[in-house]
Amino acid sequence: MQISVQAETFNLAQVFTISRGSRTQAQVLTVRITQNGVVGWGECVPYARYGETIETVSTQIKSLGAIKRADLKAALPAGAARNAVDCALWDLEAKITGVRVSDIIGLDPLRPEITAYTLSLDTPVSMEAQARLNSFRPLLKIKLGTPDDMPRLEAVRRGAPQARIIVDANEGWSAEVYSDLAPHLVRLGVELVEQPLPAAEDHALLGLDRPLPVCADESCHDTSSLKDMKGKYDYANIKLDKTGGLTEALVLRDAAREAGYGIMVGCMVGSSLAMAPATLVAQGAAFTDLDGPLLLAEDREHALKFDAEGVHPPVQALWG
């Protein structure tokens, strides 16, 4: 078995801004695992918020020798490195056995899932224009996270009066700001708010009135996060770059449901290769947010299909 890792860059279709900053490119790592001439691959997005860089994650991956998927959790912590290797091992197994990953896992036949489309944080005028341009999409996700978000919310609703809306504050609010905004979120038909408070300060959500569901993102990494989410959150946002791959994501999904949480499946900004395994986790999720490829100016060959039915499962030529 040989493991290789390659840094790749995908240009974005437009500047993408959240409360923590802006970017014009998606920087990813592509992992290829070769065994007896068969190559499985996966992709991860190192994320600075979690102390990851292209260099540190590459080093983690290069430290591995031949490894089985069952041993991966002990070899690497949850995060981007383990994600790319885990997904590459799943792809490798599917190619060696000739059995799709969904069938190995025992999932029901895969179907498309409606995915959110993310509107970047911008001025109210620009966000209204973005909303109007994408008003045909059934579900919009608004990036917020500043003390001046009400004009942005109003502008997006004007631009897309019929769309369902969820919002993501990316840890940008205080408990006071959230409490002030929550009634207006309800008034504007917002269905879910992601991570309103910094993860280190989310204890302020305990006992706080939540007139609409609150979803843990930065506060939810893997199954070990669930005990600290109790009483604070209603939904868990599962991202493979946080869980450390498809294997743990499936375990987290089942454990979160058992604990009474609704399920959201999200992503970092990456290519169709990164989204492909997440489409398996997203089956039946209340909210799917796998729009990474829609934000890119370029994508992989055999890219995921997006249409009115949502994001479709990957074709065999892409992954799994």
Overall pLDDT score: 95
Name the helix and strand elements from N-terminus to C-terminus, one letter apiece. EEEHHHHEHEHEHEEHEHHEHEEE
Give a quick account of the main beta sheet: strands, pairing sense, barrel closure.
8 strands, parallel
What radius of gyration results from the CA coordinates? 19 Å
Distance between the termini: 18 Å
Q: Give the tally of β-strands.
A: 13
pLDDT < 50 stretches: none
Structural class: alpha/beta
- The total of helices stands at 11
Strand content: 15-25%
Q: Please bin the fraction of helical residues.
A: 25-40%
Overall geometry: globular
| Main sheet: strand order | 4-5-6-7-8-9-10-11
Could you characterize the architecture of this molecule?
The protein is an alpha/beta fold and 320 residues long. The protein contains eleven helices and 13 strands. The longest helix is centred in the N-terminal third of the chain and has 18 residues, at 80-97. The chain starts with a strand and ends in a 9-residue tail after the last strand.
